[in-house]
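Box 3.1. Reading complex inputs
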Amino acid sequence: MIAGNANNAHRNESVALALLKSASAFFIVSIVVLLGYLTFEGTKLFTVDHKSIFEFLFSPTFSPDTGQVGAAPFILGSLFVTGFAIAVGGPFGLAVGVFFSELAPPRVAAAMKPAIEVLVGIPSVVYGWLGLTLLVPLIRNMTGSTGFGLLSAGIVLSLMILPTVISLAEDAMRVVPNSLREGSLALGATRWETISRVLVPAARSGLAVAVILGIARAIGEALAIQMVLGNSPTIPHGLLNAASALTSEIVMDMGGAIQGSVTQHALFSMALLLLLIAMSLIVLVKFVVRRAT
Amino acid sequence: MIGANGRGGPREKMKVEDMNVFYGSFQAIKDANLNVAEHRVTALIGPSGCGKSTFIRALNRMHDLTPGARVEGRVMLDGENIYAPSVDPVTVRHRIGMVFQRANPFPKSIFENVVYGPKIHGLRSHKALVEVAEKSLRAAALWDEVKDRLNRSALDLSGGQQQRLCIARVLAVEPEVILMDEPASALDPIATSKIEDLIGELKRRYTVVIVTHSMQQAARISDSTVFFLLGELIEVGTTSEIFTRPKDKRTEDYITGRYG
Amino acid sequence: MIQARRRFTDAFASGALWGAACFVVLMLAALVGYLIYLGGSAISWHFLTGMSSEMNAGGGVGPQIYNSFYILILTLVFTVPVSLAAGIYLQEYAATGWFRSAVQFSAESLATVPSIVMGLFGLLVFVQTLRWGFSALAGALTLTVLNLPALTRVTQEALASVPGTLREASMAVGGTKWQTVLRIVLPSSIGPLTTGIVLISGRIFGETAALIYTAGTSVAHGRAAYDLSPLRPAETLAVHLWYTHSEALIPDVTRIGNGSALVLLMMVLIFNVVARVVGRALTMHITRKA
């Protein structure tokens, strides 16, 4: 009989599928609960404490004990160090990614890539520690400032986003069909002309994704920059000024914040803001990818 | 036609009725009808891309695994439609086994490969599994070559041995019909002739349907031959009829080498 | 003339790309060398196994190393089964449909949540709402949510590396989908799967931001520091490195920090090497290919 078979294998099959589906559903539950909780806690500053969103976003004074909850210094700090990291680490990462895809002889790539992978694995506190013991004294000696500040944080972050940008840029270059390479070289173009005029334009959406995810990596980094920023809750006036970022401020103040206090609400608002930025970067990636296809 | 010559002739094992196969909007098989006789070897021939592989994969519902593939019509196995909604494709494949173009042994030992099917169908006793393994490997004419190294990886075998192992693996679940999709196309002539001899043995106990790109092979091993062209089943007959007195002009052209 | 300039540009640009790559690798080498130089003298048997100290010099990081492994294992206990299941579902079962898209989008979104934000989430849910307090379990569950997306991706990629012909072969002897996945596909993907799990273990081992406000920044004293209970505060080595620098009162912060940083780096290197060597050995053992 081939019909109406209801043996063990069948029961196992449906039990298995149910288990697999519930494990997958856990993802949906997690993100929904995460968004829900943070939205709930992160808007209490406005609903319970009656602060204005405008003040939170644009006021330069953060002193929750006296009722001032301006997060502008942290927002600017985050934007600045992220911008610095992308300006320095972005081109560098793209160049190394292109190198691995187009120029590196297989042996060289095989020798160098493990190094890049180690770079990914180094914990962010170790980057912070390196910044603290190596970079901060170096900048202090060279400039006479304290060494803590935007410059140190920017340099540390530039290094930290490198592996992300490198590997995504390499992937983006590798999916460019070989026929384009051959076509260009066959016309007498040099390798660099082929790369700069044919391959990079062809891979531009993938390269854009590499940079966007580099931004996402930078904006969410907390400890490494907290350790070298100097943590001053004021709007910085120069590269060498101590500053704070959204993430570093959460790290600094969360420990002492009393549950239900204005301070804690303000910190949750910052976390919510970070989450919204991260998610809009994902939407941006989707948009870039969709426009490319 | 075989299966139609009355008493004493072979029983009809499978019957294909008005089969159409689509990949998306592309129709790969058009209105195919075929009777498959029990304990006979039926060969499917035709130029590449003619649909013979598509056709054979429809005979045990392998297309269920291909996204976008759709099979219409009926395929009867002992009078039951294997595409009926109440039918479980897994049971169908238990009764209708398949050997593929390239040997695809699991990355496990020779023994574990052969007993994989019996195990998943619930056979537990080690003694029984050992018996099944020996029986199947003997039936696949591989026993003498591997009996001393059953626990070695199947991937250490030669290509021809791997393919016979895959046949043994199918035999171990005691199917009634064995489908073979160009089983010797990736093998050297010696390995090929071993497989061909094996097929001759297998038909005593099983019904065999084989796709082949080699007309010589079809002529050597099959009892009846089916000719496909551009997704259409052009002609069915005994193998001697097809190769000596084809009724259709297109079959004749192919036999005489005009399609390459 | 034009030809010469084109050739020069080409050589110059190639040189720049080579230079960028070499710079990155050399910088890594320099950083590793620097950490070894700094931390080498700090590391001793006493440092690796000794009790940490809040006030006095001469403390070790024994309990912190223990906690790092404790939380790593606890995290894997939760993460591996869920990611395997989700990866199998996405790769082997779900072709299309709203549920699959929703799972996929959720996974991508979770993957971008900054770890400090995840840490706050853990604080809210596990530490405060569920009233577990700062605990190894709260830390491990936070890390579970943080690492699920990456491990699910690893699973999907490992499964995708298994040739479809093996699935067909199993189906062709009457195997069900689940039997095929469990007995053929999953064992065949054990190499890349192991590599991925070990690499992610390295990341879990070094995670800090998500643990500060979930697993806490303290350890018990004496033998209680090596307690097996998941509901005790469990400062890990990475958290310790951060905490000593920012809050602690001990006079030999730098020594402790240098030693901890080197131990963390060494662990990352070990996880990387193990991931590669074991993964490759398993793949070779299974596929008989180099």
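In summary: Chain B has one domain: 12-255.
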